[in-house]
């Protein structure tokens, strides 16, 4: 029945952020027309967290070695934040050309993205 997920990142400079995701992060993509790129994501998982505040959705890119990932991205000119210990994983962010930040983390919890079913 459900065969995938489509994530939308809203941007104040969508063209620059699309170019960044294509050229710097190296994500494969299709052109849906007129340069509107849709990217293939790495394997994914979804979690539902409780909140007493406003509901929201967040996007985190996961990595096996956050320190190496940040060094590699920094060498490409990407502005990276320091790594912090979030308990459930090591957390950092990278700055997109639009000025917004994209979170990265190295999980310390079991992951679901490699399950067979």
UniProtKB/TrEMBL annotation:
<protein>
    <recommendedName>
        <fullName>VOC domain-containing protein</fullName>
    </recommendedName>
</protein>
<dbReference type="InterPro" id="IPR029068">
    <property type="entry name" value="Glyas_Bleomycin-R_OHBP_Dase"/>
</dbReference>
<dbReference type="InterPro" id="IPR037523">
    <property type="entry name" value="VOC_core"/>
</dbReference>
<feature type="domain" description="VOC">
    <location>
        <begin position="3"/>
        <end position="107"/>
    </location>
</feature>
